[in-house]
Amino acid sequence: MVDKYDEISKQLRGLVLPELNIDVIENLLNDRVGLIREISRTVQRISVEKNLYLPSENTQILAAAIADEILGVGPLRELMEDPSISDILVNGPDKIFVERSGKLVRTNKRFIDNQQLTEIAKRLVNRVGRRIDESQPLVDARMSDGSRLNVVINPIALDGTSISIRKFSNVSRTLKDLVNWGAMNEQMANFLALAVSCQANIIISGGTGSGKTTLLNALSRHINSDERIITLEDAAELKLQQEHVVRLETKMAGVESSGQVTMRDLMINTLRMRPDRIIVGECRGGETFEMLQAMNTGHDGSMTTLHANSPRDAVSRLENMVMMAGLNLPIDAIRRNISSAVNLLIQANRLHDGSRKITHISEIMGLEGDTIILQDIFSFEISESINGKVQGKFVTPGLSIRSNIYSRAKMHSKDMYLKQIFGQ
Question: Where is the Bacterial type II secretion system protein E domain (predicted)?
């Protein structure tokens, strides 16, 4: 019966779409219920004319599916509206996965065929003012609700059109939320809040989906309200609460490979805009050099994220990205630049049970020979797994008297509060 319904649905879909009154449909684009009602009437009429019988319930299902296709999301509508879902991953017409609570789960949603999937993918891309075709078979963009959209089609998507959506949350999380989720403890949250308010330069490292942007948003809440903040992103995700914020976003090249604005272009221009703090959504290349220069030349309290699996890996990644600027700096000069610019490295990890933890808060203590010295202020020690759930505890050796954070706290008259955090 399911196979029969699928076949009839496919036939009716092809027959119904050309028969719809475009003027009527356009007037119903903001009324999904009315749109389904109009499509249902057309489905019923064509079912009779072509002797393609469908029960009333199945007619409504088909009408809703066509309506959602017209509205541009197809079978993804319910997934887009589900607040428990953070990512939607489409690997083909019948392979739709979502991420819930850090775990990937296959859904029972499906497209009729790859043609329908590709049509909806193109509509999503068109809605954000971009185009996708064989000459430009991949697009990365920001949707109108802030969600990040990535679409790949043939010839480079070998198993069918691929859609990846990182959903945008309108809720700006706090450090207290992260404590409640078990990502850190209260002592760590208090320390990070103080470090931000004392204008420490911070880099958050971690893998995809480890919570870097969520943490960056939470940290930004502790920036003083009288500071001028400029944010730079490839796809705007940051939700700063302060009034004096300028948001900048990169721009991909147009049809004729013109008009591109890179992260490095934004970074260079930002330095001319009199920022107090600069927040870069993610450093990936040569713009890292300008970011470190900004941290070293009066833009204290600047923050960014990068992809790395540990604080030590993050340092190596910083070195590599500075080299990508093409300035042929010697490695010892790069390391001096990093050690003087960056105060804290925060490592975010997604563990095998799907939970997210701040596994390290490390301070750069300076150079010893040609090695950048790192010292953990906090770390997460894994003890065991019980019923698939990772167990462990957050530990701290305390704060060194040589700490730059201590010096900053003293300069901002907050050293007593810092001592209270560590019970000194």
Answer: 73-351
Domain containing residue 158 = 72-170
Number of domains the chain is built from: 3
311 near 338, Cβ under 8 Å?
no
Are 393 and 342 in the same domain? yes
- Residue 401's identity, in one-letter code, is I
Q: What is the CATH number of the domain that holds 85?
A: 3.30.450.370
Which regions of the chain are under pLDDT 50? 1-2
List Cβ neighbours of 26 (8 Å cut-off, separation of 6 or more).
none
> Is residue 230 located within the same domain as residue 120?
no
pLDDT of residue 1: 42
Token pair 């497209």 in the structure block, residue? 111
Do 79 and 29 have their domain in common? Answer: no
| Cα separation, 277 vs 259, whole angstroms | 27
Average pLDDT of every residue of the chain: 91
Claim to verify: residue 12 and residue 76 sit in the same structural domain: no
- Contact indicator for 196, 223 with CB cutoff of 8 Å: yes
| Residue in the structure block whose two tokens are 């809040």 | 193
CA 366/CA 375 separation, integer angstroms: 10
Contacts of 68 (CB under 8 A, 6+ apart): 32, 74, 75, 76, 77
Which pairing describes strands 95-100 and 103-106: parallel, antiparallel, or unpaired? antiparallel
Same domain, 207 and 129: no
Cα 222 from Cα 196, distance rounded (Å) = 6
Claim to verify: residue 123 and residue 246 sit in the same structural domain: no
Other beta carbons less than 10 A from residue 418's beta carbon:
22
Model-level pTM? 0.83
